[in-house]
Design goal:
By secondary structure, the chain is α/β, with parallel strands linked by helices. It contains 15 helices and 12 strands. Strands 1-11-7-2-5-3-4 form a 7-stranded mixed sheet, sandwiched between helices. Strands 8-9-10 form a 3-stranded antiparallel sheet, with no helix packed on it. Strands 6-12 form a two-stranded parallel ribbon. It starts with a helix and ends with a strand. It comes from Equus asinus (Donkey).
Length: 382
């Protein structure tokens, strides 16, 4: 204690250089190291999104969705927002819950019309920390005309579609500056928008329901410059997600091509290098009991359960739910001009589907060596 008092008195009696020295010692303390603080903020920003993905979302909608719009391998278990609001009815704040549910009735169809995006939310600093955790990068290869509408096909799905969210539901990678005049809408389960509070959170980022009504509205009644991002491979593709593997489920996914033809919306292939690297998954071989269970869940319930892990919260050497900090580079390819056909034939659909598959493979081949893959690497299309 005497030593502390003496040191304190010395600072008070000392010159300006003594005070400066004391301040330098203060800011050299480890817990105030700037790089470490930023790293922790990155971890927190990713953790909140993972928890939102796992806890707040509703159960999937089963077989009611078109096959090209299925979700990934995670069955979101919670309806926490609904539970909290129901609990609020039993407290002194019950009036807040009543007012919110009343407003919800009047606002029910807003998601079907593209939602209510907020540039303020899309520009949160949190999303920049989210981006830098991996890091995530968006690469533009061609300009997009604002006089056209688009369907972006995002590949691969990965476990959580982290690149799709960061690039198109936030401004962390400056999508609006790279594609001026284009409004991206990341499509996800319609059931998400029946969840109180969660729906507001999703809509603020420009996320919309992936159903027929919403897509028809955005591509026909919302002007031009709209881009709907669909993770085409869905649950089936997520089952093959593992580090070191580049595979997409596309050969029999043709519904998005039919939609594009009906509305004359150009198709844009997207490949996200590194999406499969951020989580490790137990892959069950074809014919095994594990794969049989996954397929049954996918067929009858709408999601495919999988066993996966990332890194721990406090150490990269332990298992946990945080993704591994591996680079994700999302490359947006050249748009394929699609004519508008009210009633496209199967021959029309097959023709443009083949063109799309070829464009995706070419996109992968042109950029694979830039992002650490060997020239011999082949994109597996199933």
């Amino acid at each position: 204690m005497k030593t502390l008092i003496a040191a304190y008195s010395g600072v008070l009696r000392g010159t300006g250089s003594s005070i400066l020295s004391a301040l330098q010692d203060l800011f050299s303390i480890t817990w105030l190291n700037r790089s470490q603080v930023e790293k922790q903020l990155q971890v927190i920003s990713v953790l909140q999104w993972v928890l939102t993905f796992l806890v707040m979302e509703p159960l999937p909608e089963g077989r009611l969705r078109p096959p090209f719009l299925t979700r990934g391998c995670l069955p979101p278990p919670g309806v926490s927002c609904s539970a909290i609001l129901l609990y609020t009815f039993c407290t002194d704040c019950w009036l807040i819950a009543v007012l919110y549910f009343t407003w919800l009735l009047f606002d029910w169809n807003t998601p079907k019309k593209g939602g209510r995006r907020s540039q303020w939310v899309r520009n949160w600093a949190m999303w920049r920390y989210f981006r830098d955790y991996f890091p995530i990068q968006l690469v533009k290869t061609h300009n997009l005309l604002t006089t056209r509408n688009y369907i972006f096909g995002y590949h691969p799905h990965g476990i959580m579609g982290l690149g799709a969210f960061c690039n198109f539901s936030t401004e962390a990678t400056e999508v609006s500056k790279k594609f001026p005049g284009i409004r991206p809408y990341l499509a996800t389960l319609a059931g998400n928008f029946r969840m109180p509070v969660l729906r507001e959170y999703l809509m603020s980022g420009g996320i919309c329901p992936v159903n027929q009504d919403t897509i028809d509205y955005l591509l026909s009644k919302n002007g031009s410059g709209n881009a709907i991002i669909i993770v085409v491979g869905g649950a089936a593709e997520s089952l093959s997600s593992m580090p070191g593997k580049n595979a997409v489920t596309l050969r029999h996914r043709k519904g998005f091509v039919k939609l594009a033809l009906r509305h004359g919306a150009d198709l844009v292939p997207i490949y996200s290098f590194g999406e499969n690297e951020v989580y490790k998954q137990v892959i069950f071989e074809e014919g095994s009991w594990g794969r049989w269970v996954q397929k049954k869940f996918q067929k009858y319930i709408g999601f495919a359960p999988c066993i996966f892990h990332g890194r721990g919260l406090f150490s990269s050497d332990t298992w946990g739910l945080l993704p591994y900090p591996k680079p994700i580079t999302t490359v947006v390819g050249e748009p394929i001009t699609i004519p508008k056909l009210e009633h496209p034939t199967q021959q029309d659909i097959d023709l443009y589907h083949a063109m799309y598959m070829e464009a995706l493979v070419n996109l992968f081949d042109r950029h694979k060596t830039k992002f650490g893959l060997p020239e011999t690497e082949v994109l597996e299309v199933t």
